[in-house]
Design a protein that fits this description.
single chain, alpha/beta, Rossmann fold, 4 helices, 16% strand, globular, binds zinc ion
C-alpha cells in the first residue's frame, strides 16, 4: 500500500531512545509506505548511565540517534534540555512551537500525560500545549532565537 501524498509525521520523545522504543515499529511502517518521519528528543539524554559521564553519554547517544536516522531514513533532532530536569516552561514550549512550525507536520505523536517518568510527563504537556498554541500568530513570532 502506498500513499498518494506523503504525510509528515513528527514523533517527540523526552530522551534519545524514546521515539525508537515507543514508535520504532510504526515508523518503519510509515517509511515503508513513503511517509516522512522526524524524531525529536526534547532532552540531551545525559543522565541515564552509571559509568559514563554526562558529556560522554551525550556523545554516545548522539551517535546512536545518527545511526537510527540513517537506518530508518528519517530526520532526528536532539534538543539541548537537560535530562532528568525537564519542566514544561514557556521557553521549552516556545522552542517546540518553533520546531513544529518549521517541520509542518500532519501528525504529532508523543508520550502519554500520565507516564511514569517526569521528563515524559513534561514532554507530553509541552507537546500538547505547543500543538494548540502553534496556531496563535503572535506566540513565538519569527525571530533568530528560535530559528
Ligand atoms: Zn525516556
Amino acid at each position: 500500500m502506498t500513499s498518494a501524498e506523503p504525510l509528515r509525521i513528527l514523533i517527540i520523545g523526552a530522551h534519545p531512545d524514546d521515539c525508537e522504543i515507543k514508535a520504532g515499529g510504526v515508523t518503519a511502517l510509515y517509511r515503508e509506505i513513503g511517509h516522512q518521519v522526524k524524531f525529536v528528543s526534547v532532552t540531551n539524554g545525559e543522565s541515564g548511565h552509571h559509568q559514563l559521564s554526562p558529556a560522554e553519554l551525550v556523545k554516545v547517544r548522539r551517535a546512536e540517534t545518527n545511526q537510527v536516522a540513517s537506518l530508518m531514513g528519517i530526520e532526528y533532532e536532539v534538543l539541548g534540555n537537560r535530562d532528568g530536569r525537564l519542566q514544561p516552561t514557556l521557553e521549552a514550549r516556545f522552542e517546540l512551537i518553533a520546531l513544529i512550525r518549521r517541520y509542518q507536520p500532519d501528525l504529532i505523536l508523543t508520550h502519554r500525560p500520565n507516564d511514569y517518568h517526569p521528563d515524559h510527563r513534561a514532554t507530553s504537556t509541552l507537546v500538547c500545549d505547543a500543538a494548540y498554541m502553534v496556531i496563535v500568530p503572535h506566540i513565538v513570532p519569527k525571530c533568530r532565537r528560535y530559528a
